[in-house]
Write a structure and sequence with these properties.
2 domains; 5 helices; Ubiquitin-like (UB roll); 5 strands; about 170 residues; binds FE2/S2 (inorganic) cluster; alpha+beta; DNA polymerase, domain 1; about 40% helix
Amino acid sequence: MKMVKIRTRVNGKDIRSEVEPRELLVHFLRENLGLTGVHVGCDTSNCGACTVLIDGKAVKSCTMLAVQADGREVTTIEGISKNDELHPLQKAFLEKHGLQCGYCTSGMILTSYWLLKNNKNPTEEEIRKNLSGNLCRCTGYQSIIESVKYGAQLMKEKEKEEQQIEVR
Ligand code: FES
Ligand code: FES
């Protein structure tokens, strides 16, 4: 099969690759780039375990071909922490027990990350609606919702801290 050249920026790094035209983005990220925090739960766009950010927007990566990521910026769960420090949303999921097996967790976090970047003070209803395309078979959803609420609080605190550092 004829390979196609693509250029993407993944977690802040420029990547040049050759892919089969039929290769799904989720498989490209996991198998070609080793980003195994992107999970395959269903391959049929139902579970949300494969969610990544494409140009900042949450997208199920099993619904996209790798060639469609050409020229785009992709962020996976591996890309949201800084200098080995967990992102506030990751901390919140840990502290509020928003996961058990963890299979759905990267998708839950990235879908919520997208919401909180666009809406710092979401209502519980907005959080639930935003996660309606993400399935978890372990926790029940209450602890996930609590984690996102707490994550919103931690993200605001972190932002304030960073602004204070800039002013000093
Ligand atoms: S693997 Fe993509 S939505 Fe389930
Ligand atoms: S924590 Fe196991 S599927 Fe959600």
